[in-house]
Amino acid sequence: MFDNDGVFRPVPFDSEALRPRLPSPLEEVADERFARHGVRLLLKRDDLIHPELVGNKWRKLVPNLEAAAGRPVVTFGGAYSNHLRATAAAGRLLGLPTVGVVRGDELADRPLNPSLARCAADGMRLCFVDRATYRRKADPGTLAAVLSAADAEDAYVVPEGGSNAAAVRGCLALGEELRDHADVVAVACGTGGTLAGLAAGLGPGRRALGVPVLKGGFLGDGIRALQTEAFGGPVGDWALDERFHFGGYARTTPALEDFARDFEGRHGLPVERLYVAKSLYALVALAEEGAFPRGTRIAAVVTGAPFSP
Ligand SMILES: Cc1ncc(COP(=O)(O)O)c(C=O)c1O
């Protein structure tokens, strides 16, 4: 980063502030909805890796912060993005300038919601762009215009959701940590970057199950593209179950809310609603459908924690 004299000083990466708890804890829980089908449920507590870069955010962001080598970081997200908040927090912890490009120019004239307010409080400069521009942000011309408008031409760019080859490789370790302990590993998917790395790290005889929280059915191609970028081609045994988006991103239903509250009561952990709740719901439904042979060890990755303003 540039200090007051305009001198470039790389951020020392071995930062105490980002020190993780790894491998993250793996906890078996007693839940009769699984036990009666002869299967075991383990919770992979990635929500305990780091208090501010929670869950998959630490695994995905840290390789990118390293690659940024002290340059300002620009990234993208919606108004409630967990990824934007984590990037802003990393910026504060490392003393690194961050810029958040936010979907929806109408938001510029409104008071910041609690999630964006946290980003701003952590020092992230917010730039609001209209939805059409936001959709085209991967197009080089559009990206250059967005970066220029944000006065961030020299910044290191992290894509929406933090998913690029570095992030996917960062999630390899999640699979490696689980390969000796679980037969099936379930994870909620937004961009699919976490699943892409997890599946590659699991190794032979293990299966990764992705639960997309967005509607659309287009995620498989994106995951194959991410794996090709990160590893040169598709890798690992993974599949998606597209039935549990509950209407799409950030949508919920009373049944999902009841489920999440009940799960918190049963197992004493906070359940993040946008992603984690949907993946846990999917696992319970699949167990009830008899989708897992007796003796299967299922790990559910707790990829985040609820945001409390
Ligand atoms: C809590 C949580 N879980 C899961 C995901 C999905 O990660 P990915 O985009 O790598 O599929 C996200 C993405 O932002 C998230 O915030």
Automatic annotation (TrEMBL):
Its cofactor is pyridoxal 5'-phosphate. The keyword Chloroplast does not apply. Keywords: Pyridoxal phosphate. Transmembrane segments: none annotated. Residues 33-304 form the Tryptophan synthase beta chain-like PALP domain. InterPro entries: ACCD_DCysDesulf (IPR027278), TrpB-like_PALP (IPR001926), TrpB-like_PALP_sf (IPR036052). It comes from the Bacteria. SUPFAM superfamilies: Tryptophan synthase beta subunit-like PLP-dependent enzymes. Belongs to the ACC deaminase/D-cysteine desulfhydrase family. This is Pyridoxal-phosphate dependent enzyme.
